[in-house]
Design a protein that fits this description.
The complex is a heterodimer. By secondary structure, chain A is mostly helical. Chain A is built from eight helices and no strands. Chain B has a domain of 69 residues. The chains are: A mainly alpha, B alpha/beta. At the A-B interface, helix 5 and helix 6 of A face strand 7 and helix 3 of B. The complex binds adenosine-5'-diphosphate and magnesium ion (MG). The site of magnesium ion has 3 residues of chain B, from helix 1. The site of magnesium ion (MG) has 3 residues of chain B, from helix 1.
């Protein structure tokens, strides 16, 4: 039993790493993608539209495989062992960036034009207007959908098994097969549940923190 | 003749939306230091568009916009050419705009709404900005609301905060676009009172309003606008006694 836990623990760490690194990269990347999606340059707008459509329209599992094998099939580079984890982070980040981009975009477009005009007449430049006036209001509005995506991400980390990254779920399955018992899988389920509970709790704290105004 | 300095001159402003929606056909008028000019006219006559053009929120097609002798827009071969970005930024410091819907920043406290541009844009040190902001709030009876958020205030209070926000940057001209139209009738008085207070201190103001009695009391001149043209530009008593049928009808309707 104890060894079951210690084995699972290493998987938990990997899952948590995938989760945190994906958020770290996809949240800012999503903002850049959102800007591209709203760009006045039609070409950029279209490229970004296609990118988002592919990311949202194909399975993440397939994207993982493509990102993992791309260096070999496209560039003929031998795939190293350490690239597995990197591939997971790349695939997850560009996938979640697409979802976050659409969330940012809807949030940015929901801010009344009067806010921009007030800022402009007061002399704020574009950067100041965005980061001081618009973005803080956007964050408040997009927290609920971002929470949803984040919870989905916790569960999606299990997809890393497809390129043999030993995250939580992979290990749980191996143990379950060896012991011919579902205990390890139950523990894994509990892990995801608790993980998401914590995520939801943290997001709720953010929402409360921003509830000082309407 | 009037020898007060001309703060703003609009010359033959033309503005269309699309091919054939000529919203401003040929608008010209002057505003001198210390003057209060009210712009009245039917809905859709182009009142907001004039203010938006004068504050550079909307670009004009042709004509000249001149602040303190400096051209923000110049007419060249029947087309308006704007000054450089840098010059426009400088010129923009001469005016402030108060919106019908306040457009306060909801995530900032009242005092931060009033002082943030002063700190961020004008580079005034924070203590100095807060001191100035508190003085303004005090003048408008809002000192006790400094730490509240806009959503906690009544519409009348919010509009007074937005006036304070515009004044904090010490503009030479203040534009108002129907400052009381979004307010419940019982709250318009407190906002009009603040504007009257400013008029008595000789603040130069251009006010779009439907409050005829107020316009008559507070204005040095009233401009009546219809279909994108200035129909009358005269002293309030002359405008109220005009023979022009359309103007009489309009004023009569709102006064009854
Ligand atoms: N951005 C715009 N695009 C197209 N038409 C506009 C735009 N802004 C204003 N208009 C039109 O210009 C006319 C004058 O509008 P406005 O200046 O808001 O009138 P007022 O403030 O006197 O009620 C209206 O017919 C309005 O529909
Ligand atoms: Mg209007």
């Amino acid at each position: 039993m104890a060894s079951t836990f210690s084995q699972l623990a290493s998987g938990m760490v990997v899952s948590a790493e995938i989760f945190l690194l994906t958020l770290l990269f996809s949240l800012p990347l999503g903002l850049i993608v959102a800007f591209g999606r709203m760009s006045k340059v039609k070409v950029i707008q279209w490229i970004v539209k296609i990118y988002i459509a592919i990311m949202r329209g194909t399975p993440l599992m397939l994207q993982l495989i493509v990102v993992y094998f791309a260096p070999y099939y496209v560039f003929g580079v031998k795939i190293s062992q350490s690239y597995r984890f990197v591939a997971v982070i790349i695939a997850f980040s560009i996938n979640y960036a697409a979802y976050f981009a659409e969330i940012y975009r809807s949030g940015i477009q929901s801010i009344p034009v009067g806010q921009y005009e007030a800022a402009r007449v007061l002399g704020y430049n574009k950067t100041q207007t965005f980061f001081k006036i618009i973005f803080p209001q956007v964050i408040k509005r997009i927290l609920p959908p971002v929470t949803n995506e984040t919870i989905t991400l916790v569960k999606d980390t299990s997809l890393a098994f497809v390129i043999a990254v030993a995250e939580m779920f992979t290990i749980a399955k191996q143990i379950a097969a060896k012991q011919a018992s579902v205990t390890a899988l139950m523990v894994a389920g509990l892990f995801y549940f608790v993980f998401n509970y914590v995520v939801a709790f943290i997001m709720e704290c953010f929402e409360k923190k921003l509830s000082y105004y309407n | 003749m009037d020898d007060r300095e001309v703060l703003l001159e609009l010359r033959s402003i033309k503005k269309s939306f699309g091919e054939d929606v000529h919203v401003l056909k040929d608008i010209s008028f002057l505003v001198r230091e210390g003057e209060v000019v009210s712009i009245i006219g039917p809905s859709g006559s182009g009142k907001s568009t004039i203010l938006r053009c004068a504050t550079m929120l909307t670009e004009i097609d042709d004509g000249e916009i001149i602040y303190l002798g400096q051209n923000a827009a110049t007419s060249v071969n029947g087309k308006a050419v704007y000054a450089s970005k840098k010059e426009l930024k400088e010129i923009s410091k001469t005016f402030g705009l108060v919106f019908q819907s306040f457009n306060l920043f909801p995530h900032y406290s009242v005092i931060k709404n009033v002082t943030d541009a002063l700190i961020t844009v004008a580079g005034v040190p924070k203590d100095e900005a807060v001191k100035r902001g508190m003085e303004l709030l005090d003048r408008f009876g809002l000192a006790d609301k400094a730490d509240n958020y806009p959503c906690e205030l009544s519409g009348g209070q919010q509009q007074r905060v937005s006036i304070a926000r515009a004044l904090a940057l010490q503009p030479k001209i203040l534009f108002f676009d129907e400052p009381t139209s979004a307010l419940d009738p019982e709250l318009t008085g407190e906002v009009l009172k603040v504007i009257k207070q400013l008029a008595s201190e000789h603040m130069t103001m251009i006010i779009v309003t439907h409050e005829m009695q107020f316009a008559r009391e507070v204005s040095d001149r009233i401009v009546f606008l219809e279909n994108g043209n200035v129909v009358i530009d005269d002293a309030p008593d002359k405008v109220f006694d005009t023979d022009n049928k359309r103007v009489r009808e309009f004023i009569g309707k709102l006064n009854s």
